[in-house]
Each structure stands twice: as C-alpha cells, then as structure tokens.
Amino acid sequence: MRKLSVCVLFGGVSPEHEVSLRSAESVLNNLDTEKYNIFPVGIKKDGDWVLYGGKDYSLLPSGQWEACPKNRRAAISPVRGQGLLSFEGDCVVREHIDVVFPVLHGENGEDGSMQGLLQIAGLPYVGPHVAASAAAMDKCMTKLVAEQAHVRQAAWQLVTREELQCNEEAAMDAVEAKFSYPVFVKPAGTGSSVGVSKVKNREKLSEALHRAAKFDAKVMVEEFINGREVEVAVLGNETPAASICGEIEAGAEFYDYDAKYISDCAKLYIPARISDNAAEQVRDTAVRVYTALGCQGLSRVDFFVTYDGEEVVFNEINTIPGFTSISMYPKLFEASGIPYAQLLDRLLELALQAK
C-alpha cells in the first residue's frame, strides 16, 4: 500500500507557539513512518515557514530546530494540486501532500485562518473546518451557540477594549452589578489559559481586564463556578463519540498556563472523581456542544461539575487540543482503549473522510 504523505504544521504566530512545539514533538515521534511520509513544517514567530530537514524532533521545544542546516523555506500553495512547496536556491521543489495535521494552537492556527488556507488549497486536514474553528476559538461565539443548544454554562459578560479605553469605570461598574467576586477574566480568542485571571476585587479586575485586552479586543468576564474541572475528548465526524471523563486538580489558584505546562503542581484523575450519572451527562453534553458548533475530527470539551449537587456546567471547547506527553486529549482516549499512535491514525482517517 502506498504511504500517505502527511504534512505536520507546528509553531505559528501565536502566544501559544511554544505549546505547539511540544505538541508537535509528541505527534511527530508517534506517527508511524512505515505508513506515512512525513513533512514537518514549522512556522516561526516572525511568520516564516520552514520545512524542517532534521529527524531529531526533541529539538522542537527549545527552538533549536530552526538552526538545522537542511531546513528549507516552504509554503503551502493555495493553488489546488500544488501541495507543499519548498525553496532551494532558485529551485522550487513540489511535494504531493495527502493530508495535513495542523498541530497549531490559538491565533492563526486554530481560529479558522489556517483551515481557510487548507480549504482553498484543496488539502484534507485534521480537525474542524473553518466556521466551527472560528466559532469555537471565540469564547463569546461559543457561548451564544451553547445557549441556543440549551446547554447550562457559566453566566458571562462581554467587555470590549474600546469600552475599557473610553470608560473603564463604567465597564467595571457593569461587571460588579452582574457578578459577585471572584470572577474569571479571559481574552475571547486565546487558549492554554493565556491572559486568563481569577479576580477577587475591583483593583485586580482593572488589571485583569487590561491584561486580557492585550491579547484580544473582546474580553469575557465569567462567573465563578465552585466545582471540579472535568474534561472529555470527542472524536469523529458525523457520529462523534466521547471518551472517558478526566479531572484536573490544578494545585494552584486555577489551571493556568504555568500549571498546564511549566510546574508539576497539577494532578490528573482518569476517570474523574464524579458519579456515573454526572460522567454520562458530561459526555452527552460534550457531543451536543461539538455537534452544535459543527465540529469534526476532534475537540476537547471542558466542564465544571459542582461540588454541591454535581451540576454539569459547560466551560469551553478546544478544537486543536494539546498533544504533549501530558495532555489530556490523548490520555483520555488511551484510557478509553485507543493508544496514542492509533489515535493519530484515526484522526488522519477522519480528515480524509471529512466532507
């Protein structure tokens, strides 16, 4: 059987560039070279595309891959049938690509931008398509879709960067009129908890709003839900299925970027420490949200399950979840009977089957 040619995209012009490098290292090390011809393409922070010429994927997280002497500048052609182009002196080398795995997190990679390029190029790719990616990346849009699907979620309020600049006091007054402290403040369009703060008073609210506004013109303020942080992985196109539930005990004020990727304070529990009824509700609701947004391929869906009464409260959805060695998405499916390498195979199959 002919090997499939797989282009793995990583890096990106995004605050989550480093997370992408870690995810890509794991993906590249687990793709079966007996089945696939692999073309690792890194996008540097300045936006330059590079076909990585090395074989040592452990160099990705540190950024050392950028200095490989065999690297070539590269691009995906928007012209259908052209595939991956790399440049060596005055020569252009064209590589046929069967499927693309965008291991990209956040802005310009997960928000529909890259998906739009791949769609125009006629290249199948892993993960939700343009509209679903864009809606899921924008937390406010996700909230509106979930509301229409009658999914229980935390109360929220939008604060724009313009409102902060024009009348910050009025914006904070409106927040305090709706919520009691603590609240969460989040940029509408970031993942990996970038720019997210837990706020306990007005002074910290001002700091958090301005911090979040550095990452996005839309800032979401959300009520605090006192519960366990529970996550579930979803896989599939027309008939998606949810994994076993996992739980995160942050070991910090909340499950922020540091707790996710730098410190080792967080604890993961698979299965989550919730009742069977609550777990089934989490899994059912995850598929409802996934379907309502029009997702396909994969997503990780995050919830709170309250300590008092085990009420299931939708938090957010991530259409290209982390694939690092400690990431929940692959761990949840491994616990559900699908090992990491097999999961990658299935994702590539789904990409080729997607309509």
Determine the number of helices (DSSP H or I, runs of at least 4 residues): 10
Helical content, roughly?
25-40%
CA radius of gyration is 20 Å
Assembly annotation: single chain
**Percent of residues in beta strands?**
25-35%
Identify the overall geometry.
Answer: globular
Main sheet makeup? 7 strands, mixed
Low-confidence stretches: none
**Element order, helices and strands?**
EHEEEEEEHHHEHEEHEEEEHEHEEHH
Number of beta strands: 17
- Give the terminus-to-terminus CA distance: 24 Å
Strand order of the largest sheet: 6-5-4-3-2-1-7
Overall pLDDT level: 93
SS-based class: alpha+beta
Descriptive tags:
seven-stranded mixed β-sheet, 355 residues, 26% strand, six-stranded antiparallel β-sheet, alpha+beta
Describe this structure as you would to a colleague.
The model has no long low-confidence stretch (mean pLDDT 93). By secondary structure, the chain is an alpha+beta fold. Helix 5 (161-178) runs antiparallel to helix 6. A hairpin with a 4-residue loop joins strand 12 and strand 13 (241-242). It is globular and about 65 Å long. The protein contains 10 helices and 17 strands. The two termini are 24 Å apart. The strands form 3 sheets. Strands 6-5-4-3-2-1-7 form a 7-stranded mixed β-sheet. Strands 12, 13, 14, 15, 16 and 17 form a 6-stranded antiparallel β-sheet that branches.
